[in-house]
Amino acid sequence: MATTTDGTTPSVPDEPVHRLRTEIQRLRDEAAQQKKLAHRRAEFWAKADVALGFPAALLAAVSGAAALASPDARVPAALGTLVSAGFAAGAAFLRSERRRLANKWSRQAWAAVEAKATVLLAREWIGPADLAELFEVRQVALGAYEGDETPHPPGPPPATPGPA
Q1: Over the stretch 37-53, which tens digit does the pLDDT of each residue have?
Q2: How far is Cα 49 from Cα 36, in angstroms, rounded to an integer?
Q3: Contacts of residue 137, Cβ cutoff 8 Å, sequence gap at least 6
Q4: DSSP secondary structure letters along 19-44
């Protein structure tokens, strides 16, 4: 324990509880930062989904109408269809809708960590079990966005109906 220059021990709050509160505060700050980051990423992927999907749909519709309108418009319509297919392929390759959903679920998971930490900091007494519980919620948040093919929200999996 630290001492002052005159050799006395300074009065500090209960050391273990102070360390627990400091760690919980750090986790709350991390959760707030990760929540903002996941929110920005979800917004980005929503914009990317619209930026690729809308032109693809518009070009496909215009190209189809032009191809049906006159035989002279078939070459420009074919070029429009190729561009539309490029946009659609780009959207499918990037999987922007899945990434947007994964980031939304990640944002929710980090919000749960932040809320849990805030509740713990509001309590008068905090124990090691509380910190362990907060770390478990943090692990769920860390795994909420895996960028995999089938993102899933935090929490228990949805119930599946049994055989009839």
Answers
A1: 999 998 998 888 878 77
A2: 20
A3: 112, 113, 116
A4: HHHHHHHHHHHHHHHHHHHHHHHHHH
